[in-house]
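Ticket #4471: structure export looks truncated?
Reporter: QA, pipeline team
Priority: medium

Steps to reproduce: submit the single chain below to the structure queue and open the exported record.
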Amino acid sequence: MTSNDTPDPQQRVSNSNVSDNVSSREFPAPHSFDGTFKEFMRTAHDLGGEAGGPIQLQEREQMAWETNTMVTCECLAWRGVWNHTEKLRRVVDLGDKQYFSLPYAGRFLLSATRAMVDKRLVTLAELTNKIDEVKKRHGKK
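Actual output as written to the record:
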């Protein structure tokens, strides 16, 4: 065993002080949330325990933008911009309104956009300019 492997006695003292400080604070008990604690912890896609209805399944071909979105997401992962876990987490973190109002590929498109802006790979100004350029090219307002 080397000297680097042995814990420093001073370090042990400081760690115990931290736990003493934490135990002296008053934290609310989970029952004080009146059943809303679980609601705060739920994400948009967590539908466990809720009443559900019949699900209509449709076989259809993906539209070009959906395919391009998924390919873009895979390219971002391949280039190291995000990994699979971050990609899924960003989709979940969209919030209820956006999660349920967007189609499946749209959620990933918005998440990829936010990831690139958050990581400063593209600025909002550049993104807005490119969107305007594409709209003009396709004759949309």
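Status: closed, not a bug. The export was complete when the record was re-opened. Leaving a note from the reviewer for reference: Residues 97 and 106 are 13 Å apart (CA to CA).
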